[in-house]
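Weekly structure sync, notes
Attendees: PL, DS, HV (note-taker this week)

Item 1: Threonine synthase
DS walked through the input record. Source organism listed as Propioniciclava soli. Sequence as pasted into the shared doc:
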Amino acid sequence: MRYVSTRDASGGPGLPFCDILLAGLAPDGGLYLPETYPQLDAATLAAWRRVLTEQGYAALAAEVLALYIDDIDRDDLDALCARAYAADTFGSDAVVGLTDLGGGVHLGHLSNGPTAAFKDMAMQLLGELFEYELERRDETLTILGATSGDTGSAAEYAMQGKERLKVFMLTPAGRMSPFQQAQMFSLDDPAVVNIAVDGVFDDCQDLVKAVNADLTFKAEHRIGAVNSINWARLVAQVVYYVALWLMATTRDDQRVTFAVPSGNFGNICAGHIARAMGLPIDTLVLATNENNVLAEFFATGVYRVRGRSETHATSSPSMDISKASNFERFVFDLLGRDAAAVTELFAHRLPLTAEFDLSGTEAFATLADRFGFVAGTSSHADRLATIAAEHARSGVVIDPHTADAVGVARALASARGLTEPIIALETALPVKFSATIVEALGTDVPRPERFAGIEDLPRHVIDLPNDAPALKALIAGT
Ligand SMILES: *Cc1c(COP(=O)(O)O)cnc(C)c1O
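Item 1 (cont.): predicted structure, written out as C-alpha cells:
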C-alpha cells in the first residue's frame, strides 16, 4: 500500500507506510491517504468475527492494519499490536465494549485505556510504531506538542519508557481540569517533560509553531509531532469501528449507525474510511458542541473557519476547535480525489477568505447518499439534559463529549429513521469532567480505583514564560 497527499495532483508514485509514519504533513501541505481503500468482503468479515472472539482485539488490529502496512513484517506487526493493546493497559482482552442504553442506542466504550479517553486507542499503537521504526533507522525523535487536555496525556502515557522518544508537552498554566493536570504531572519519567506556559492554549500552539518554524533547530533536535493528522492514528481508529460493528451484529450484512462526538474530524474520519472499505455502516452521525464548524458544513455546504474570538470554551472542551484539521481528507474523497481542487480550496481559498462554499455542487448534493453523513449540534444545556436523561433511563453516566453524540443521535434517530443499532462512541470517562457531571446529576461519579488520589501525587512540571527562546533553551538542555 502506498500513500498520497491530498494536494498532490502529479499522479506520481506514493510513499510506503513507514515513510509517512514519522512525517506529519506532506511537504506540499496536504495530508496523507492510502491510494485506495482495501475492500472487505463477507468472508473477511466472517473470519474477523472469529479472530475477535477467539483471539481478542490485538489480533483483530493486526488483521486490519496489515491491509494498510506492508513494510513491517507480519510477525512484527502482530507483536506491536499485542503490546499496544495489552489487557493490562486496557483492562481486558476485548479492549472495547458495548453497553445498551435503551431505545436503540448503545454506548461503544473506547475509554478503558490509561488516560480514560479514546485518544489512547490510537496513541498506544503510535508509541509502539514510532519506537519500532526509530529502532530500525537508528534514530531518535523529540515529540513537541501543545495540549488542552486529552491528547497530551494520551501521548505521554504512550511514549513514556520508550528509549528513542522524548516528549515535551506544553499546557496552559492553571487551565486544565485538576484531574487532567494530575494525570499528566504525576508522570515520573525523565523522558516526559511537562511544561506549564504562562498563557492560554493558543499561546502554547504558537510556541510549537515557532519552534517548528526554525528549521535548523527542528532538524538538529529531531522535533516531531503526534497530532491528529498522523495517518497511523486514523488507521488505528478504523480497528475499533470494525470491532464494535462485530460486537453489535450477528450477520455479516447487518448495518449499524455510529454517532461520533467530533472536533478535529479524526475519529469520524476513521468511520468514513471503515465505511469506504465496505464495513456495513449505515449512517455516520457527526455531533459538535457550540463550536459547530463541521455541523454547519454538513447542513449548508459552507466550511467557515472560526477566529479565536469566535471559538467558545465549552463543557465538552476537547471539541473546542476553530477548524477541523482532518477535514481535508474527507473533502479529498468528496471531490472524487481531485487533488487540484483540494489545493484550490485549502491552500488558496481558505487562507484568503477563511471559508469555502460547496453548496450548489453535485458533490455536496450527493454527499449524504454517497457517504452517509448527518450532523447536529449540542449545547451546554443539551449536554446536561442528556447526561441526566441517560442516567435516569439506564443508570449509566456518560461524559459531556459522549453526551453530545448521544443527544444528537437520539434527536436525529426518529427524524431521519436511522438504522438500529446506533452506537454512540464514548470518547472519555465521566471522571475526567466531574464538574459537569455534578452540574448535571447533583452528585459526582465514583472514581475508578486506578485513578484514586492522583491529585496527591508529586507533580513534575516546569513553569515557562510564553517565550520561544526559553522553550528552545529547555529543549536543547541549556
Ligand atoms: C479528541 C476528543 C474528541 C474529538 O475527536 P476528534 O477526533 O478531534 O474529532 C472528542 N471527545 C474527546 C473526549 C476527545 O478527547
